[in-house]
Design a protein that fits this description.
10 helices, alpha/beta, about 280 residues, elongated, 8 strands, two-stranded antiparallel sheet
Length: about 280
């Protein structure tokens, strides 16, 4: 299909700076997390399964100290998991002994009922130090924006308490903007979770990582530009020989020109407007 076609070997743009998006509420959230750590028994870090190694905030390990931790790679239903075992091996080398792949919106799946026992086990194994006499468990949920932290909390709460949503959920990054009060999610054992705002690394290490974050909506679209995000997706598809978009959008062949592609899609989908000008009727 793409015989004879040449595509870009790298993606570059100079219009936006996605490498330094760290709004004030993220600084506030990070300070709140540090202030509450003395009463936290364990950590659940949530990240997007589509980009398991891109954009995770390395500063979390300094914030949480030696607390036991569980990594949940959410939105697994949207990810290609053929490399799941390799991902687990790579994460184990980074020190993650407990990793779950999940879809937190499907709270009826088996993984939800495994979370609280896993958290209880890892906390008891690690020891609770000055909280050893306490009967309840306090768990902090953290991660970059829009990876499903609030959805996870609501799913656990519904599974064990049959209760409604305790924290707001949104399709865009930045819905949770400050550290919330303790949310009871389970009675046996008594478990509380603290939701936290999505916190990016203060400096995204490369344009490539920044664009992957934007493509998965962990950066707000307007900060990068919808056309630039679409262009990066086209670049990635061509680079990885994923030409399914040609049939999907009724194109004749692969293209490396996002504007050409968007125009053809608009025409095929009849998403055009007639505009009368001095030169006659035109389409846009």
């Amino acid at each position: 299909m793409a015989a004879g076609k040449t595509f870009r070997e790298m993606f570059t743009f100079a219009n936006k700076d996605v490498t330094k998006w760290f709004p004030g509420h993220m600084y506030k959230g990070l300070r709140q997390m540090q202030a509450r750590m003395k009463n936290i028994d364990g950590i659940i870090e949530v990240h997007d399964a589509r980009i398991p190694f891109s954009g995770r905030n390395a500063d979390f390990k300094f914030t949480i100290g030696v607390r036991p931790r569980l990594l949940i790679l959410n939105k697994a239903d949207l990810a290609d998991l053929k490399d799941e075992q390799n991902i687990r091996k790579a994460l184990k080398k980074e020190g993650w002994s407990r990793v779950m792949f999940a879809d937190c919106k499907l709270d009826s799946t088996n993984f939800v009922k495994k979370i609280v026992p896993t958290v209880e086990e890892m906390i008891n194994e690690a020891g609770r130090y000055h909280r050893a006499e306490e009967r309840d468990f306090n768990v902090l949920v953290c991660g970059v924006p829009n990876v499903g932290k609030s959805s996870l909390i609501n799913a656990i709460r519904h599974r064990y308490l049959r209760a409604g949503k305790a924290t707001r959920v949104g399709a865009k990054a930045g819905v949770t903007r400050s550290l919330l009060e303790k949310i009871r999610v389970c009675d046996e054992p008594l478990t509380y979770i603290l939701d936290s705002p999505g916190i990016l690394s203060p400096n995204v290490k490369s344009i490539e990582v920044g664009m992957r974050l934007a493509l998965c909506a962990t950066l707000q679209d307007h900060l990068v530009g919808e056309d630039i995000i679409a262009d990066y997706l086209l670049y990635w598809l061509n680079k990885n020989s994923r030409f399914e978009y040609v049939e999907k959008f009724g194109l004749t062949e692969p293209t490396d020109d996002i504007q050409e592609m968007l125009v053809k899609i608009a025409i095929n989908e009849k998403k055009v407007q007639k505009i009368r000008t001095t030169e006659g009727t035109q389409f846009s």
